[in-house]
């Protein structure tokens, strides 16, 4: 039980750190109104956020690994990550309305069936492995891993409705939501990479609201279309493949768990 | 030394015990074969020897299993891995890493062996199994036989003196199986390794085994020297079955041992082949088929014809082009030249789905087909794919034909291997296709299951279907095929009645044919029929 | 086997990206970009690995976007190119050259960083990347290796299943058509995972339960995160000592990791021994970082690498010493060319 509390605390702390890292440009801006110099130039913010997110990842990965160290989980994770990463090849190859990434539907389903811990690891490791094999390791990898981990984690926390229609609706809604939220979060993280010094971009005297407005423009210009495609894609995939996949995976859940060993009293029978 | 006393084991959530009151003893350096029908508990017994049962599988266990004085039930697989090496059936699911050397080192790394000693051991193990020329290769380029040898090497890295193998050759072609078995024999004879192996097809290995343990329904039915056990049990390679039926004692296990007995039987002059039966309308015609892959010619002009009610076997070494031919017939691969006609109609330009309405193709891995929730649903999916009406009555009739009565609502993947095979067969034949293509359908099946499948096919043949069977199992070909075609390097090198083609081939002749050359006999039944006359 | 140890390349990458983020002077940035391209050309193995992102196209897109975005958002600077009516929200006002240059520099920063990452991706093969896994993450490293091993298997399996479904009349129309492919793929994959795990256990892999942690590690991890959180909040509220808090948090986590790494009973086959060449590469990376560290030393004053086009566009300065320092990152290329063409060395 205490294990759960520790893990829960770590998740809560890392969530808070993640949010602070996300909101840092706005927080710093809020301070700036007070008149003092911002502490970090915009191009240094990624250093801070990168460090914070990597720290959160380091802690969460190690903590979850400790709980999932059995051979079955390692093998299952490895092979599911392999299957999901293969899908990323499709994404990299599609020239069309980008943003649609087929990897999120399996991450959501994996987390939904096997639990939040498995889901986090599935999300984080899928992003890692697919980045490695598509030669796409970039400075945003920690953010991707972290956020994808949260996709899997939250999927594991979803309730399991009895009625299949309700389940399908739940999964589709979840996929839609994360399609947008993932894109939102990642573009928030990557905003400081691309956008300049708060001192120059924003005219002095403007407040947090102004910063938010500028971010909104940035988001619309870069992400909105992308994320709509992602959200729609998730929804479609989950609608078409979700429920039967859930059923197939659930049958495995029992076999994956550690089975207890009972020792029966030896019966001395005369043959 | 392995000592098993009063072992009773049931898997979790299973009412029937998998093993009942097993008492068994294996001494150092023995080569023991464990055999028995499917589901008799062979795999379970083998896994008890290194702790996988019960530690990995869970379940309820009673009795004692001691390996070299260590109690398996308390010790656990990690400690036992140093004494017992384990190799499973599927060559494709045993590799952790993608490199040959790293794979062997995996066990050593987990045991925290120092790097210098690791190097030495890896080198030695590579040499032990002739894997040194393959050391730089990536895993996906290795053949099944090479991968199994690698699995054996990886199991031996920690220098265990007991090696346990669960049907290691059942997924391999005969050539690779030979390589693996030869390596095992060498390990046993030169290094004194204790080898315990489960196997269905005993022909190749029975002469090397010291002992045969026969399991049935979780109990040991017979245990002792192979000759003695096979005298009591109604199973075994064709020569053994013949010898048992004719009362030859001591029971011969190989062709050589059976020769003196065979000499007592007068071989008749082979009967002139009966005049060709009246021309039946050909169901399948292949004309000058050519196929190339990556610039390499895999099929160089194939001509063949199959008529209704005929079963034709296609044999040949690995890589001869057998599966390629089947795929060309069914439309999965587009040939470079030549024509395929089914029921008189050419397949050129038609989609695979269209062609498959008249052709039932059972692929090598029938599990690839199964995805529905129930067996009947599998059949319905195929009907729906072809836009044909689904009639539950007809589907149930098909179930009956396949011997799957009562399994209509079961989850296909919960069924046994043989039953799954039949479900897959049903899924591709639910449209009652006149032509049936079977790609290695009996790989890994035991004799009883094989016989059941053969009965189903014979039923369909009698109803006018045609069967083209690709197989390495010459005994199967002898049982069911009227004609046999031998393929090598993409060309047909022999074609004719099975009796002639297989009977005279040095490489592909079944045991009975080798025992009685030039007799035209292929199965024990042939011999017995002659004698009874 | 690459030209150099993966850890040396990691140091090279870290130095390059750090410089790319922190340098504001476009001349230095261009120099860095050039250096990274040269190193990739010199050290990349002959076979192009994986799928390469079209760096040229992406760079162009980034530069155009960042320039335009900044021009339209920031209305600062003396050299006015054009003017939009003030009434327009956000984009109204003077569009200045300085803003355009600033935006360009931002984009250039990102492009330079990407260039370093691209070079790293191309040069370091997948196996060595997987070998970089720290000890504390041993099991996840195994997950990584297994995933990499089974990716070709998955592709093969997918083709087999696709063929198998085709022969029962399945036609690919619409999304629902993927059901008979994905479900068997998932099931086959999980079956395979169970078989694989059985083999792993049979070869002595760990336990079937979890591994206990030392109490110190268990404590240090939440403490570390707490410190980092406090530090981040403090930084956003304007206290530079926030960095100290974050640093301590990182330290706590690092100690916890080391503890956990010690718990792992595992040796490594063929550990890669660093050679003098690897050391040179790492040294070159450190030398390149000197211009950043210089201003932090007492008595030296302002930053050597900063530059701002505001308020009036001027020619950016170029300090020869800084330039030379940056050349520390070209060491791998020099060594590689001295060694001769990279052969596909047998492992």
Count all strands of chain B and give the number. Answer: 20
Rg result of chain A: 22 Å
Shape of chain A: globular
Q: Total number of helical segments of chain B?
A: 21
Main beta sheet strand tally, sense and closure of chain A: none
Name the poorly predicted regions of chain B: none
**Averaged pLDDT of chain B:** 88
The residue ranges of chain A in which pLDDT falls below 50 over 5 or more consecutive positions are 198-205
- Rg calc of chain B: 25 Å
- Please give the order of strands in the largest beta sheet of chain B: 6-7-8-3-9-10
Shape of chain B: globular
Helix content of chain B: 25-40%
Task: Tell me the quaternary state.
Answer: heterotrimer
The end-to-end span of chain A amounts to 48 Å
Q: What letter string, H or E per element, gives the SSE order of chain A?
A: HHHHHHHHHHE
What share of residues are in beta strands of chain B? 15-25%
Most extensive interface, chain pair and sizes = A-C, 93 and 110 residues
Largest sheet of chain B, described in full? 6 strands, mixed
Structural class of chain A: mainly alpha
How does this structure look, described?
The complex is a heterotrimer of chains A (271), B (533) and C (347). With 271 residues, chain A is an all-alpha fold. Chain A is built from ten helices and one strand. Helix content of chain A is 76%, strand content 1%. The radius of gyration of chain A is 22 Å and the shape is globular. Chain B has 533 residues and is α/β, with parallel strands linked by helices. In chain B, the strands form four sheets. In chain B, strands 6-7-8-3-9-10 form a six-stranded mixed beta sheet, with helices on both faces. In chain B, strands 16-17-18-13-19-20 form a six-stranded mixed beta sheet, with helices on both faces. Chain B has a four-stranded antiparallel beta sheet with strand order 2-1-4-5. In chain B, α17 links the parallel β17 (435-439) and β18 (466-470). In chain B, α5 (100-110) packs parallel to α7 (144-156), α7 packs parallel to α8 (174-191) and α14 (375-385) packs parallel to α16. Chain C is mostly helical. Chain C has a two-stranded antiparallel ribbon with strand order 1-2. Chain C has helices spanning 6-22, 26-43, 55-73, 97-123, 126-131, 138-166, 179-202, 215-236, 242-263, 276-293, 320-326, 331-339, and strands spanning 80-84, 93-96. Chain C is built from twelve helices and two strands. Classes of the chains: A mainly alpha (271), B alpha/beta (533), C mainly alpha (347). Chains A and C meet through α1, α2, α3, α5 and α9 of A and α1, α3, α4, α5 and α6 of C. β1 of chain A pairs parallel with β4 (59-67) of chain B.
């Amino acid at each position: 039980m205490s294990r759960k509390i520790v893990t829960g605390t770590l998740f809560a702390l890392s969530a808070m750190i993640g949010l602070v890292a996300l909101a840092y440009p706005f927080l710093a801006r809020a301070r700036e109104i007070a008149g003092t110099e911002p502490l970090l130039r915009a191009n240094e913010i990624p250093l801070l956020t990168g460090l914070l997110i990597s720290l959160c990842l380091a802690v969460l990965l190690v903590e979850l690994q400790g709980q999932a160290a059995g051979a079955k989980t390692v093998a299952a994770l490895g092979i599911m990550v392999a299957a999901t990463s293969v899908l990323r090849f499709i994404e990299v190859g599609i020239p069309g309305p980008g943003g649609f990434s087929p990897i999120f539907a399996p991450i959501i389903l994996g987390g939904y069936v096997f639990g939040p811990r498995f889901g986090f690891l599935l999300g984080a490791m899928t992003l890692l492995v697919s980045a490695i094999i598509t030669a796409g390791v970039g400075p945003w990898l920690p953010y991707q891993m972290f956020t994808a981990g949260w996709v899997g984690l939250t999927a594991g926390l979803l309730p399991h409705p009895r009625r299949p229609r309700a389940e399908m609706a739940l999964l589709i809604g979840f996929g839609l939501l994360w399609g947008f939220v993932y894109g939102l979060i990642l573009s928030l993280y990557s905003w400081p990479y691309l956008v300049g010094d708060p001192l120059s971009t924003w005219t002095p005297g403007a407040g947090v609201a102004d910063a938010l407005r500028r971010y909104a423009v940035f988001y619309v210009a870069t992400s909105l279309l992308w994320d709509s495609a992602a959200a729609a894609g998730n929804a479609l995939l989950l609608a078409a493949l979700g429920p039967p996949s859930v059923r197939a995976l659930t049958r495995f859940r029992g076999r994956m768990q550690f089975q207890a060993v009972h020792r029966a009293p030896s019966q001395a029978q005369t043959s | 030394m392995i000592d098993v006393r009063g072992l009773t084991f049931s898997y979790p959530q299973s009412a029937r015990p998998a093993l009942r009151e097993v008492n068994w003893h294996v001494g150092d350096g023995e080569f023991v074969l464990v055999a028995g029908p499917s589901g008799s508990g062979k795999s379970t017994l083998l896994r008890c020897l290194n702790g996988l049962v019960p530690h990995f599988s869970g379940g309820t266990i009673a009795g004692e299993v001691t390996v070299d004085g260590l109690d398996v039930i308390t010790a656990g697989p990690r400690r036992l891995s140093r004494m017992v090496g384990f190799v499973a059936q599927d060559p494709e699911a045993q590799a952790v890493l993608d490199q040959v050397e790293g794979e062997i080192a995996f066990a050593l790394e987990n045991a925290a062996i120092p790097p210098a000693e690791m190097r030495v051991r890896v080198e030695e193990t590579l040499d032990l199994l002739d894997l040194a020329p393959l050391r730089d290769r990536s895993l996906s380029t290795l053949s099944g036989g090479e991968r199994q040898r690698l699995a054996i090497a990886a199991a031996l890295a920690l220098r265990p003196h007991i090696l346990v193998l669960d049907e290691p050759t059942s997924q391999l072609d005969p050539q690779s199986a030979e390589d693996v078995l030869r390596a095992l024999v060498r390990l046993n004879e030169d290094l004194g390794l204790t080898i315990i192996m489960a196997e269905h097809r005993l022909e190749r290995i029975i002469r090397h085994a010291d002992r045969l343990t026969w399991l049935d329904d979780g109990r040991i039915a017979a245990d002792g020297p192979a000759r003695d056990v096979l005298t009591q049990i109604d199973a075994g390679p064709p020569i053994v079955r013949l010898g048992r039926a004719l009362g030859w004692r001591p029971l011969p296990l190989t062709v050589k041992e059976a020769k003196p007995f065979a000499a007592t039987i007068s071989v008749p002059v082979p009967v002139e082949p009966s005049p060709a039966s009246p021309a039946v309308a050909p169901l399948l015609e292949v004309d000058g088929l050519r196929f190339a892959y990556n610039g390499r010619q895999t099929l160089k002009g194939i001509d063949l014809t199959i008529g209704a009610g005929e079963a034709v076997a296609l044999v040949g070494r690995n890589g001869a082009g057998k599966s390629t031919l089947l795929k060309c017939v069914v439309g999965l691969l587009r040939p470079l030249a030549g024509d395929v006609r089914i029921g008189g109609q050419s397949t050129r330009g038609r989609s695979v789905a269209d062609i498959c309405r008249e052709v039932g193709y059972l692929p090598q891995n029938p599990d690839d087909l199964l995805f529905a929730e129930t067996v009947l649903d599998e059949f319905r999916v195929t009907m729906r794919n072809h836009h044909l009406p689904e009639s539950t009555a007809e589907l149930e009739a098909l179930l009956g034909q396949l011997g799957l009565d009562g399994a209509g609502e079961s989850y296909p993947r919960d069924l046994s291997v043989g039953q799954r095979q039949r479900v897959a067969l049903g899924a591709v034949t639910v449209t009652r296709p006149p032509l049936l293509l079977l790609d290695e359908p009996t790989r890994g099946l035991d004799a009883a299951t094989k016989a059941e499948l053969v009965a189903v096919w014979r039923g369909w043949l009698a109803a006018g279907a045609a069967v083209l069977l690709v197989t390495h199992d010459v005994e199967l070909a002898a049982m069911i095929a009227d004609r046999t075609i031998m393929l090598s390097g993409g060309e047909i090198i022999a074609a004719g009645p099975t009796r002639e083609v297989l009977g005279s081939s040095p490489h592909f002749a079944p045991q009975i044919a080798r025992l009685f050359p030039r007799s035209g006999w292929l199965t024990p039944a042939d011999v017995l029929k002659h004698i009874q006359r | 086997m690459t030209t150099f140890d993966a850890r040396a390349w990691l140091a090279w990458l870290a130095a390059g990206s750090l410089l790319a983020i922190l340098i504001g002077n476009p001349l230095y940035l261009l120099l860095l970009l050039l250096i990274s391209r040269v190193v990739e050309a010199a050290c990349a193995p002959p076979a192009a690995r994986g799928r390469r992102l079209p760096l040229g196209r992406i760079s162009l897109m980034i530069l155009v976007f960042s320039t335009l975005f900044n021009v339209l958002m920031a209305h600062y600077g003396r050299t006015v190119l054009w003017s939009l009516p003030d009434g327009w929200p956000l984009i109204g006002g003077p569009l200045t050259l300085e803003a355009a240059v600033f935006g360009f520099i931002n984009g250039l920063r990102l492009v330079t960083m990407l260039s370093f990452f691209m070079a790293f991706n191309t040069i370091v093969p997948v196996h060595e990347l997987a070998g970089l896994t720290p000890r504390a993450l041993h099991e996840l490293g195994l997950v990584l290796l297994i995933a990499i091993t089974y990716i070709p298997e998955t592709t093969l399996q997918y083709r087999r299943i696709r063929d198998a479904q085709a022969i029962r009349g399945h036609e690919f129309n619409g999304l629902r058509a993927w059901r008979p492919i994905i479900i068997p793929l998932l099931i086959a994959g999980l079956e395979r995972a169970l078989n694989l795990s059985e083999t792993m256990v049979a070869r002595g892999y760990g336990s079937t339960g979890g591994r206990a942690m030392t109490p110190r590690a268990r404590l240090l991890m939440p403490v570390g995160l707490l410190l980092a959180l406090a530090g981040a909040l403090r930084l956003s509220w304007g206290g530079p000592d926030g960095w100290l808090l974050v640093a301590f948090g990182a330290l706590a986590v690092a100690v916890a990791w080391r503890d956990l790494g010690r718990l792992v009973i595992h040796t490594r086959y063929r550990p890669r021994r660093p050679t003098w060449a690897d050391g040179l590469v790492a040294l070159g990376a450190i030398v390149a970082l000197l211009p950043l560290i210089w201003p932090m030393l007492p008595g030296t004053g302002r930053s050597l690498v900063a530059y701002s086009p505001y308020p009036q566009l001027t020619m950016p300065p170029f300090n020869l010493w800084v330039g030379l320092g940056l050349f520390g990152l070209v060491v791998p290329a020099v060594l590689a060319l001295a060694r001769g063409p990279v052969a596909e060395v047998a492992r």
